[in-house]
Design a protein that fits this description.
The complex is a heterotrimer of chains A (about 350), B (about 240) and C (about 80).
Chain A (H helix, E strand, L loop, with lengths): L2 E6 H11 L4 E4 L7 H12 L3 E4 L3 H13 L4 E5 L1 H16 L4 E7 L15 H5 L10 E3 L4 H18 L2 E7 H5 L1 E6 L25 E2 L9 H19 L3 E4 L6 E4 L2 H16 L4 E6 L1 E3 L3 H8 L4 E6 L5 H8 L6 E5 L8 H13 L1 H6 L3
Chain B lengths: L1 E3 L17 H16 L5 E5 L14 E4 L5 H11 L4 E7 H7 L1 H9 L5 E6 L29 H4 L5 H5 L5 E8 L3 H19 L4 E7 L3 H4 L3 H15 L3 E5 L1
Parallel strand pairs in B: 2-3, 2-4, 4-5, 5-7, 6-7
Antiparallel strand pairs in B: 6-8
Chain C lengths: L5 E5 L9 H5 L5 E7 L5 E5 L10 H5 L5 E5 L6
Antiparallel strand pairs in C: 1-4, 2-3
The chains are: A alpha/beta (about 350), B alpha/beta (about 240), C alpha+beta (about 80).
The structure holds thiamine diphosphate (TPP) and iron/sulfur cluster (SF4) (3 copies).
C-alpha cells in the first residue's frame, strides 16, 4: 500500500485532502487546528492548488462557497469559535447544494472557552448550526488513520450528495501524532458530473448558483421538500460505526471520536475483569447509526454514554435506543476528557449495584 | 451607423427596479462593456444582497448570489480556481461598506484580480430606506429621522478614498449616472476596470453614485438633481487611483 | 425612417414612466402618455420623429432599455 509516516492528526487530514484532489483551502488561524492551514500553505501550491489565509472565518467559508460553485474540490477548517462564525456560510452552501468539506477540531466552550479538546459542538454540527432546515453529513473519527481515510471519503460524499460534509474532530485528535499509512486516493463511487459549476457560459446557457427562492410562492417549500428527500436518501445509504464486544454485552458504552477511543480501552479492561461490557462507536454522527442501538437495546441491560460535553450526543443515543433501557451519562463540558480507569470504575459500580446508577437518571 | 440597442448580455426581462432607479442604467452599462470586450462567455458575476439580489435574472452570464457583504470572498474563491475567467462583484453600499467591510478591504488588499461595481445610493434600498454607511450628514432616513449626525452615527464612509492607500488596488474611480455625460463616464470607467482585470493588474473598483427615488422619497427628476447637487459635493467624482 | 435618417422606437410595454428621457432630450421631443401601460405606468412617447437627431441621450438615461435607436450618424459612446 502507501508509505508509512508519522503525522499529527491535523497534518494527516490536510494531506488526505490534497490526495483526494482538494485544490482550494481558505482558513483563519485558531488553536488547536493551526497545523491544517500551516501544512496546506506549502503543500497545496506544490500540488497546483490554492491556499488563502482569509481575514476571518466568515470570509474563509464564503471563499469556499465561491470555489465550490466554481466546481473545485475545496475545504476549510477551524475550531469551535471559528465554526460558529462559519454558520452563515454553511447554511448558504447547504441551500445551494455545493460540495465542500469543513473540519471542526473542537475546543472547550462556550465563548472563547479554552484550547483543550472538547465535544461541545455536537448539537451545532448534527442538528443544524446555521439557519434553516438543512443537514450536514458529519463524521467523527477517533484515530489519525481513520481521520485520513474519512477525509478522502468526505470529498466523495460531498460530491455524491452535493452536500457539505463536516469532519467533527477535537483538539486531541488534531494534535496526536500516530503512524499513518498514506493510502492513495480511490473514489468510493462513480461521482456525478458537476453540471452546476460556474465556469463561464461558453457553448452553453448561463448558470446561476443561488439560495433566494421567491417564485413561485411555494418554490422554497418545494426546495425544502426536495432537500429533505435527499437527506432521507443519505440516511438510508450512509451509516458507519464500530461495534466492539457487543455480542454478549450486558453493559453497552456509547461514545464517539476521542471519547469512543478511550471508552474502548475501558471495555478492554472491564472484559479482563470479567464484566460483559461492549462499545458502539458511531463514525457517521449524521446520519446517526440508529440500527446498532436498536438492536443492542433488545439485549443489554444498560447503556453508558461517555462524552466530552455536558450531554448532547446522549440525546441521540436515547432516541436511537428508543428509551428501552436506562441510559446513564458520564461527561463534562469545558475541555475535559475521561480516563479509561474512570469509565471502568463507573462500569464496575453499574455492575455491582444496578439500581444506584439507574436512579441517577433524571 | 449608430445604434443604441439592448446589449446581448442584458436579458429582455423587465426588471423589478423602481422607476428612475440607477441600478437599471448600471446593469445596461455593465452588459455593454461585457459585450464590447467580448468576455460574456468567460465572465462570472456575483449578485449582492440588496435591491440587485436578482440581477442574475437580468445579466446573461454565469452568476452566483452571495450572502450579504460576502461577495468579495466568494469572488476570491471563484477567481482563484478560475484565474483565466473574468470575475466581478456588484454591490450596494450596505453590502460593501457596512456588513462586508472586512471582505472589501481585505480582498482589495490582497490585490485580488477582480472588478467591483459599487452602487452608492446613500441608503438601504431593499429594506426600505434605513441609514447606510454612506448616508450623508443631515440626511433623513427611516433610522435617522432627525438626519444623520456626526455624534453617534458618524459621517459617511468614502470608499474610494479609504481604499486608495492599499497596495493591491490598481484602479478606483467614482462616477455617477445622473446625466448623459455621467453615464458615459461610468461606462468608460467600467470598461477601464475590466481592462485592468484582463491585464492582470489587481483589484479594480468603480463607485457609481446612483439614484434611489423611492427611498429618498423624491421623484426621478428630483433624484437626479439630488445626485448632481448634493451627493457629488460630498462624494466628488473622478479617478482616485490608476496604476 | 425620419427626415434625419433616425429610426427611434419607444417600447411602451417596458417603460416605467420615470421621465428621465424627457428631462434629458436636448430637443424637448419626448412627452409622457396620458394612458397607462399594463405595468400601470404612463409611458414615454416621441413628439415629432422628424425633430429627433438620434443623439441617443434618452437611450443612455433610460434605466429600462425601453428605447432603441438606429441612425446613420456616428455617435459618441
Ligand atoms: C445577514 C443579513 N443581514 C441583513 C439582511 C437584510 N438586508 C437585505 S438588503 C440590506 C441592505 C441593502 O442595502 P444596500 O447594500 O445599500 O443595497 P441597495 O438595496 O440599496 O441596492 C439588508 C440590511 C440580510 N439579507 N442578511
Ligand atoms: S428601492 Fe431604491 S435602489 Fe431599490 S429598486 Fe427602488 S429605487 Fe432602486
Ligand atoms: S435621440 Fe436625442 S433627440 Fe432623439 S428623442 Fe432621444 S434624446 Fe431626443
Ligand atoms: S427613461 Fe425609459 S423608462 Fe423612463 S420614461 Fe423614458 S423610456 Fe420610459
Amino acid at each position: 500500500m502507501g508509505q508509512k509516516v508519522l503525522l499529527k492528526g491535523n497534518e494527516a487530514m490536510a494531506e488526505a485532502a490534497v490526495q483526494a484532489g482538494c485544490r482550494f483551502f481558505a482558513g483563519y488561524p485558531i488553536t488547536p487546528q493551526n497545523e491544517v492551514p500551516e501544512y496546506l500553505s506549502w503543500r497545496l501550491p506544490q500540488a497546483g492548488g490554492v491556499f488563502v489565509q482569509a481575514e476571518s472565518e466568515v470570509a474563509a467559508i464564503n471563499m469556499v462557497f465561491g470555489a465550490a460553485a466554481g466546481g473545485a474540490r475545496c475545504m476549510t477548517s477551524s475550531s469551535s469559535p471559528g465554526i460558529s462564525l462559519k454558520q452563515e456560510g454553511i447554511s448558504y452552501i447547504a441551500a445551494a447544494e455545493l460540495p465542500c468539506v469543513i473540519a471542526n477540531m473542537q475546543r472547550g466552550g462556550p465563548g472563547l472557552g479554552n484550547i483543550r479538546a472538547s465535544q461541545g459542538d455536537y448539537f451545532q454540527a448534527v442538528k443544524g448550526g446555521g439557519h434553516g432546515d438543512y443537514r450536514l453529513i458529519v463524521l467523527g473519527p477517533a484515530y489519525v488513520q481513520e481521520l485520513y481515510d474519512l477525509t478522502m471519503h468526505a470529498f466523495d460524499w460531498a460530491d455524491l450528495y452535493r452536500n457539505p460534509v463536516m469532519i467533527l474532530g477535537d483538539g486531541i485528535l488534531g494534535q496526536i501524532a500516530e503512524p499513518l499509512d498514506i493510502r492513495p486516493y480511490r473514489p468510493i463511487a462513480e461521482l456525478p458530473a458537476k453540471d452546476f459549476a460556474l465556469t463561464g457560459c461558453a457553448g452553453r446557457a448561463s448558470r446561476v448558483v443561488k439560495t433566494l427562492i421567491l417564485q413561485p410562492a411555494d418554490g422554497l417549500v418545494h426546495h425544502n421538500e426536495y432537500l429533505q428527500q435527499k437527506y432521507r436518501r443519505i440516511e438510508e445509504e450512509l451509516s458507519l460505526y464500530e461495534e466492539y464486544e457487543t455480542e454478549d454485552a450486558e453493559i453497552l458504552i456509547a461514545a464517539y471520536g476521542m471519547s469512543g477511543r478511550i471508552a474502548k480501552g475501558a471495555v478492554r479492561r472491564a472484559r479482563q475483569k470479567g464484566i460483559k461490557a461492549g462499545l458502539i462507536r458511531p463514525i457517521t454522527l449524521w446520519p446517526f447509526p440508529k440500527e446498532p442501538f436498536r438492536r443492542a437495546a433488545e439485549r443489554v441491560s444498560r447503556i453508558l454514554v461517555v462524552e466530552m460535553s455536558s450531554g448532547q450526543f446522549v440525546e441521540d443515543v436515547q432516541l436511537a435506543s428508543e428509551c428501552r433501557v436506562p441510559v446513564e451519562f458520564f461527561g463534562k463540558g469545558g475541555g475535559w476528557y475521561p480516563l479509561d480507569t474512570e469509565i471502568l470504575e463507573i462500569v464496575e459500580s453499574m455492575q455491582a449495584n444496578p439500581s444506584v446508577w439507574a436512579t441517577r437518571k433524571d | 451607423m449608430a445604434t443604441f440597442t439592448r446589449p446581448r448580455t442584458l436579458k429582455e426581462t423587465i426588471t423589478h427596479y423602481c422607476p428612475g432607479c440607477g441600478h437599471g442604467i448600471v446593469h445596461r452599462l455593465l452588459a455593454e462593456v461585457i459585450d464590447e470586450l467580448g468576455i460574456r462567455e468567460k465572465t462570472i458575476g456575483t449578485a449582492p444582497v440588496g435591491c440587485a439580489v436578482m440581477m442574475y435574472d437580468y445579466i446573461d452570464c454565469d452568476m452566483i448570489e452571495c450572502a450579504h457583504g460576502r461577495a468579495p470572498a466568494a469572488a476570491t474563491g471563484l477567481k482563484r480556481v478560475h484565474p483565466d475567467k473574468i470575475v466581478f462583484t456588484y454591490q450596494g453600499d450596505g453590502d460593501l461598506a457596512a456588513i462586508g467591510t472586512a471582505e472589501t478591504i481585505h480582498t482589495a488588499n490582497r490585490g485580488e484580480n477582480i472588478t467591483v461595481i459599487f452602487i452608492n445610493n446613500v441608503i438601504y434600498g431593499m429594506t426600505g430606506g434605513q441609514m447606510a454607511p454612506t448616508t450623508m450628514l443631515g440626511q433623513r432616513t427611516t433610522t435617522t429621522p432627525e438626519g444623520r449626525g456626526m455624534h453617534g452615527e458618524g459621517g459617511p464612509i468614502h470608499v474610494c478614498e479609504l481604499l486608495r492607500s492599499l497596495e493591491g488596488v490598481c484602479y478606483l474611480e467614482r462616477t455617477a449616472v445622473s446625466s448623459p455625460s455621467d453615464v458615459l463616464a461610468t461606462r468608460r470607467a467600467i470598461r477601464k476596470a475590466f481592462e485592468c482585470q484582463i491585464a492582470g493588474k489587481g483589484f479594480s473598483l468603480v463607485e457609481v453614485l446612483s439614484m434611489c427615488p423611492t427611498d429618498w422619497k423624491l421623484s426621478p427628476d428630483k433624484a437626479v438633481k439630488f445626485v448632481n447637487h448634493e451627493m457629488k459635493t460630498v462624494f466628488p467624482v473622478g479617478v482616485y487611483k490608476d496604476k | 425612417m425620419s427626415k434625419n435618417n433616425v429610426d427611434i422606437h419607444f417600447d411602451a410595454h417596458r417603460c416605467k414612466g420615470c421621465g428621465l428621457c424627457v428631462i434629458f432630450c436636448p430637443c424637448g421631443n419626448i412627452r409622457m402618455s396620458d394612458a397607462l401601460n399594463e405595468q400601470g405606468h404612463p409611458y414615454a412617447e416621441l413628439i415629432d420623429a422628424d425633430r429627433c437627431t438620434g443623439c441617443g441621450l434618452c437611450f443612455r438615461m433610460c434605466p429600462d432599455t425601453a428605447i432603441e435607436i438606429r441612425s446613420n450618424k456616428t455617435a459618441k459612446r
